Amino acid sequence: MKTHNWFLIESEKDYSKALERYEQIKYSEAGTAEYKELKLLIKLISEYEKSTAELPEVDPVELIKIRMEEFGYNPKELALVYGDKGTVSKMLNYKRSLSLNMIRKFSDLLKIPADLLIREYPLNP
Fold first, then answer.
1. Which residue range forms the structural domain that includes residue 101?
2. How large is the average pLDDT for residues 6-19?
3. What is the largest CA-CA distance in the chain?
4. Mean pLDDT of 88-112
């Protein structure tokens, strides 16, 4: 499949095209030209979203869930990045708080500023 030339996203039209392309290549294999294009698109989309929208004022877990949905990730994919499915599940169900390692990894993966993930939030007993 042909890769595209991308520039800064400066309009909703550019943003829509980037999201559409992202959906087409989001499962590209590492090391391929499409994978490199995917990484660039994630960066461009994230920068555009930061400049045009405020992240909602919700607790860190809800924010992670929102960004997972926006990027099309599921808990299993988060576990692949973090390395432990059980811990990710507990965190998503408010049974365990975010660790510093989780904050670093999820901040990078989901393009969430780390300072939004360090906020305190209640856990379920």
1. 60-117
2. 89
3. 51
4. 92
Half-sphere exposure of 122 (CA within 13 A, CB side): 2
The residues, ordered by sequence, that sit 6+ positions from 39 with a Cβ below 8 Å of its Cβ are: none
Across the chain, mean pLDDT equals 88
Cα distances (Å, whole numbers) of residue 46 to 40, 43, 89, 94, 96: 10, 5, 25, 26, 27
In a domain, 6, yes or no: no
Shared domain for 74 and 105, answered yes or no, is: yes
Cα radius of gyration rounded to whole Å, the chain: 16
The enclosing domain of 107 has a CATH number of 1.10.260.40
| Predicted TM-score of the model (pTM) | 0.56
The string of pLDDT tens digits covering residues 46-98 is 888 877 766 567 899 999 999 999 888 999 988 888 888 899 999 999 999 99
8 A C-beta contact, residue 107 and residue 117? yes
